[in-house]
Amino acid sequence: MSDPAAPGDPASPDRGPVGVEQVERVLADFRQWLLAAPPNDDGRTETDDGRPPVDLFALIGQFTALRHEVNLQTKAARAAVEQNAEVLRQLADRDEEPEPEPADDDEVLRPAVKAVIDVADALALSHRQAEKLRDGAAAILKADAAHAARPGFFARLFGAAPAAPPPDLDALRKLAAGVADGYALSIRRVERLLPTWEVEAVRCTNEEFDPEMMEVVEVVADSGLPAGTVVEEVRPGYRWRGRLVRFAQVKVAR
């Protein structure tokens, strides 16, 4: 319901209906007021107190950007909290796990001890082969010398000098002897090294067979020794720090 018109107002019922001229004058005054008002940068007029009107679209855009930023910050904070919780859980699990026991010195040194034993076996085998070669060459030279000491009929008839041994065979004998001596020297060095590693050989020859330290590779029938006695050692056995490292291979009397 509209307020009653003030006394003296042209629109008052006492004055009668408003004429066209009055309406035109009011519209002309309003038009002049609009034209006289200073425009803003965006073409909008200012309010009565000189401040620009509120831009609702810009305000909504700022609030939307603020909400998006708050959501991003919330996600980042949640991810950081979850990561810290996972780190704390892993640290707690690590504290509960038992510490690994230190490695046993025997297990660490066992491969090196076996390598030293293998070197000793290789040197012993090579030494035996060199001795066989030396002895074989010496036997051939001895046979040739005995044959040359008995000259034949024509040699006795014409007084020929005894034949000298073949130079190649004599050189081979000397070479085999030198190689055998070199292997023997190397074996003695390894034998001096074994005690420093607390390695000792298992005594076998002429000893009673011990199944805990020996392996039988052959049984000898006519050995002249009591049954169960080791006749020959085929491959030596070794103990390290009181424990068996390798069985000895032996021949045993029946």
TrEMBL record:
<keyword id="KW-0346">Stress response</keyword>
<feature type="compositionally biased region" description="Low complexity">
    <location>
        <begin position="1"/>
        <end position="17"/>
    </location>
</feature>
<dbReference type="GO" id="GO:0051082">
    <property type="term" value="F:unfolded protein binding"/>
</dbReference>
<keyword id="KW-0143">Chaperone</keyword>
<dbReference type="InterPro" id="IPR000740">
    <property type="entry name" value="GrpE"/>
</dbReference>
<dbReference type="GO" id="GO:0006457">
    <property type="term" value="P:protein folding"/>
</dbReference>
<feature type="region of interest" description="Disordered">
    <location>
        <begin position="1"/>
        <end position="21"/>
    </location>
</feature>
<dbReference type="GO" id="GO:0051087">
    <property type="term" value="F:protein-folding chaperone binding"/>
</dbReference>
<comment type="function">
    <text>Participates actively in the response to hyperosmotic and heat shock by preventing the aggregation of stress-denatured proteins, in association with DnaK and GrpE. It is the nucleotide exchange factor for DnaK and may function as a thermosensor. Unfolded proteins bind initially to DnaJ; upon interaction with the DnaJ-bound protein, DnaK hydrolyzes its bound ATP, resulting in the formation of a stable complex. GrpE releases ADP from DnaK; ATP binding to DnaK triggers the release of the substrate protein, thus completing the reaction cycle.</text>
</comment>
<dbReference type="InterPro" id="IPR009012">
    <property type="entry name" value="GrpE_head"/>
</dbReference>
<dbReference type="GO" id="GO:0042803">
    <property type="term" value="F:protein homodimerization activity"/>
</dbReference>
<protein>
    <recommendedName>
        <fullName>Protein GrpE</fullName>
    </recommendedName>
</protein>
<dbReference type="GO" id="GO:0000774">
    <property type="term" value="F:adenyl-nucleotide exchange factor activity"/>
</dbReference>
<dbReference type="Pfam" id="PF01025">
    <property type="entry name" value="GrpE"/>
</dbReference>
